[in-house]
Specification:
Helix content is 50%, strand content 15%. Strands 2-6-1-7-8 form a five-stranded parallel β-sheet, with helices on both faces. Strands 3-4-5 form a three-stranded antiparallel β-sheet, covered by helices on one side. The chain binds 2'-deoxycytidine-5'-monophosphate. The site of 2'-deoxycytidine-5'-monophosphate has 14 residues, from helix 2, helix 4 and helix 8.
Length: 233
């Protein structure tokens, strides 16, 4: 047994656009696990900061907001909805402006501390697939399985572009690739919990593989681990 009542903790970290959300959702579905999109949680905080008109460089005001914020992920109807202080912000947090704001506020200590506490509470019993940037390095360094999912910036830019255009956003491919690179830089250069691969994470390159190929490969690894751990979950 792995010692957690609901199964393993599976961490999927990596840069934006590598396919983490899709893979995490499908993997969680196949395993009957809960998906926890930690990026969506940071995005929900960014939404509240922006809605309150708080300057993201005003760390005290952001901290106060975090102390009273109620961020919730609801997976009860098969798809994940994100709530910030009771408001469904699932679609509102996906704009390019929110992405940039999230990258800024997620570098702040009080924001990371409060989200990390919440994520640990949500995941500690296992049976979860958590996706983010620092799950394997900071949130659950003792996760039973860690993946680092990556792809080239051009490939990730193309995927993000298709997603944004699909959402009706007016953007060009060049500016999307540029925004992806800018965010990579901000996420990996920050002092607190920067994006990096945990030493014991399994690297998975999604540049030239289909979602299904990546998913099957990861599921195989998970099933072996579950078998080794001697749990049926
Ligand atoms: O995965 P995403 O694109 O929705 O993440 C949005 C932002 O949140 C991204 O700039 C990195 C940040 N983030 C983070 O700092 N730590 C996490 N665990 C998840 C996301």
């Amino acid at each position: 047994m792995n010692g957690r009542p609901n199964g393993l903790i599976i961490a999927i970290d990596g840069p934006s656009g590598a396919g983490k959300s899709t893979i995490a959702r499908l993997l969680a579905n196949r395993l009957g696990y809960l998906q926890i999109d930690t990026g969506a949680m940071y995005r929900a905080v960014a939404f509240l900061v922006s809605q309150a008109g708080i300057d993201p460089s005003d760390v005290d005001a952001v901290e106060q907001l975090c102390d009273s914020a109620n961020i919730r992920l609801d997976c009860s109807n098969g798809s994940q909805r994100v709530f910030a202080n009771g408001q469904d912000v699932t679609e509102l947090i996906r704009t390019p402006e929110m992405s940039l704001m999230t990258s800024r506020i997620s570098a702040l200590k009080p924001v990371r501390e409060s989200m990390m506490m919440l994520q640990r509470r949500m995941g500690r019993d296992g049976g979860v697939v958590l996706e983010g940037r620092d799950i394997g390095t900071a949130v659950f360094p003792d996760a039973e399985l860690k993946f680092f999912l990556f792809a080239s910036p051009e490939e990730r830019g193309k995927r993000r572009f298709a997603e944004l255009v699909g959402n009706g956003e007016q953007v060009t491919l060049e500016e999307t690739i540029e925004a992806v690179s800018r965010r990579d830089h901000q996420d990996s250069q920050r002092d607190l919990a920067p994006l990096r691969q945990a030493e014991d994470a399994i690297p998975v390159d999604s540049s030239r593989s289909s979602i299904d190929e990546v998913l099957n490969k990861m599921e195989d690894i998970v099933r072996k681990k579950i078998h080794q751990a001697g749990t049926t979950i």
